[in-house]
Design goal:
single chain, globular, 70% helix
């Protein structure tokens, strides 16, 4: 699978370069669509000319490799459509517009809840039906007809995985834009507020983000009435750190292959060890 990994690395590099070079959202999305489409076609050529060695390799490709590329194409197409119709009026109207799109994306998750849980929990017992070509079963209710049109490069559910990933990315973007609109003029810069605290965070930033989401998920701050961005903002002030795009970071945490609560596991382990040592 090394050849596919090389394609994925090149795609990410091209997209990251373009993302950093331009601020124009529509131009960025349009160019990223062209790049992603080209890489998807390159993947297809590999699959058609150099078939898989076994079922395991084929399942892995359609469950993990193709969706990584296809999801970006879906994401940038949706991003272009949303941004091109973005209201030019007040912040309130733009926030409402973005929240409506988040609600629509959530409907997709709800409509595909059974498969969503299957994919997110890392289940494998239906992989042969979902991710092998020629195994399409209408009773499994696939949401795409690509496997009928291009049965050499499609399975019944690879595009569903890609759509789930794309929707996650899009929700991250929409929440980030909402934050920008809500926070404009409301807060002083983090840099000025950091001077009030003598505490600094000295571990990985991703650990702090994991902790923030854990606090938010357990409703232990203000009885759960605060939004995640309020907790994140307070933590930035206290620990003299800028968390950056914590929505996207949380998405990466969710996609971890091993423990998705790495820092919380470390905390538990260290605390138990300390209590054990104190008991002795």
């Amino acid at each position: 699978m090394e050849k596919y990994e090389e394609i994925l690395k090149k795609l990410d590099f091209n997209l990251e370069t373009l993302e950093s070079e331009t601020e124009d959202m529509l131009h960025k999305a349009e160019e990223c669509i062209k790049i992603t489409k080209r890489f998807l076609e390159e993947l297809r050529d590999f699959v058609i000319t150099d078939n898989f060695k076994n079922k395991t390799e084929e399942i892995d490709f359609f469950k993990t490799v193709k969706p990584q590329v296809y999801s970006k194409l879906i994401y940038y197409v949706l991003l272009f459509n949303i941004e091109s119709k973005r209201p030019r009026g007040s912040s309130k109207s733009q926030i409402e517009y973005f929240n409506n799109h988040i609600d629509r994306l959530q409907i997709y998750f709800n409509d595909n809840l059974e498969f969503y849980h299957y994919y997110r929990t890392g289940a494998t017992f239906l992989d042969e039906q979902y991710f092998l070509r020629g195994k399409a079963d209408l009773r499994l209710v696939p949401d795409t007809f690509h496997f009928f049109v291009d049965d050499q490069f499609s399975t019944s559910h690879d595009s569903t995985v890609a759509t789930i990933i794309a929707n996650d990315l899009l929700i991250v973007h929409l929440k980030r834009e909402i934050d920008k609109l809500e926070n404009t003029g409301n807060y002083s810069s983090v840099g000025g507020l950091q001077k009030k605290s003598k505490l600094t965070w000295t571990a990985h930033k991703i650990y702090l983000i994991e902790l923030i989401y854990a606090l938010h998920s357990t409703d232990v701050v203000n009885n759960g009435t605060l939004d995640i961005k309020d907790i994140a903002y307070f933590v930035e002030r206290v620990f003299k750190i800028e968390l950056g795009d914590y929505y996207r970071a949380f998405l990466e945490i969710r996609m971890r292959k091993n423990s998705r609560t790495k820092f919380l596991d470390i905390l538990k382990e260290k605390l138990i060890k300390r209590m054990d040592e104190t008991d002795n």
